[in-house]
Design a protein that fits this description.
4 helices; two-stranded parallel ribbon; 172 residues; alpha+beta; eight-stranded antiparallel beta sheet
């Protein structure tokens, strides 16, 4: 009788251990401020105009490459990924893909509306909606994905030679 209880208790303990969810540490959410995201451009500005090999020296071996881009996934700086864009052998743009733990409150971006031109629409490859805040000098573009009631930071793009999106600065 004692052996049977012991075996039953052991089996029950194993079932509980195997079936209960394992406590895993939850990743820390990183909430960025608008100014912090805009300052990140200075982390990459030295790459603009340089050959693509400079990005490899900085970020390591790319995850994937194409005729005009190199992707580094995951990004060595903690972002979900980095895409370096180049043409004619020179880097002209860097795109940071946000990881699920990185966020920027879209309301804070809208509150700083004097800094941005806003764009929205649907991605051509799906019915998913986007919202974009581009600095008026065109140097930085903050992109959000809109899914139902949530607005999620998707990416931040830094451009070498941004084209002004501010109508008051465009020659007529």
């Amino acid at each position: 009788m004692y052996v049977r209880r012991s075996i039953t208790a052991t089996i029950l303990a194993l079932v509980l251990v195997l079936c209960l969810p394992i406590a895993r540490p939850t990743p820390q959410l990183k909430l960025y401020e608008v100014e912090e995201v805009l300052r990140m451009r200075f982390d990459f500005i030295d790459l603009f105009g340089k050959p693509p090999g400079d990005a490899i020296r900085r970020f390591g071996h790319p995850h994937s490459t194409g005729a005009d881009f190199m992707d580094f996934v995951p990004a060595p700086n903690g972002w979900g990924g980095i895409s370096v864009q180049f043409a004619e052998g020179k880097i002209f743009g860097v795109k940071l893909f946000a990881s699920p733990t990185q966020t920027l409150d879209v309301r804070k971006v809208v509150q700083k509306g004097q800094l941005f031109c806003f764009h929205s629409g649907a991605f051509s490859s799906s019915t998913e909606q986007y919202f974009s805040a581009e600095t008026k000098d065109g140097a930085t573009d903050i992109q959000f994905s809109i899914g139902g009631p949530s607005v999620v930071l998707m990416a931040v793009i830094f451009n070498e030679d941004g084209k002004s999106c501010d109508p008051s600065k465009v020659a007529r």
